[in-house]
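[audit] Reproducing an earlier prediction to check determinism. Same input, same settings, fresh worker. If the tokens differ from the archived copy the diff job will pick it up downstream; this log only records the rerun itself.
[audit] input (137 residues):
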Amino acid sequence: MVDDKDEQILNILNKNSRMSFADIGRKINLSPSAIRERVQRLEDTGIIKQYSLQINYRKLGNELEAFMLLRVFPGQLKNVIKNIKNFPEIKEAHRITGSQNLHLKVVTKNQISLQELLDKLMIYGDTTSFLILSEIE
């Protein structure tokens, strides 16, 4: 069972997963060892699945980010799901309900590289792209 302190820990780790147990403990008035035990339990129960980082893709030379909807041709969904990891430009992929099958977040260097990605994906289905102008924080 997750209590208020666990939720506070999760909120803190969600903002900064590198924060020390001592710093978290100071924020919510628990000892570092109590924080460590709670985090271990959250990991063991699968509530915390993994720790990750956010990359500023623009600083790596990628000028374009977009969301993409893919309506997969009949009979191709399993094949697409199997092969989606072969596209390094696709940073997130979600199977969704509705008239589309997949929602993708893609990062590319420019419009030309987006066009090349679209050309590769068109063998699987119809795409609709939405350029990301900015992130709201």
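[audit] rerun output stored. Observation attached for the diff report: Strands lie at 64-72, 90-95, 102-108, 125-131.
[audit] end
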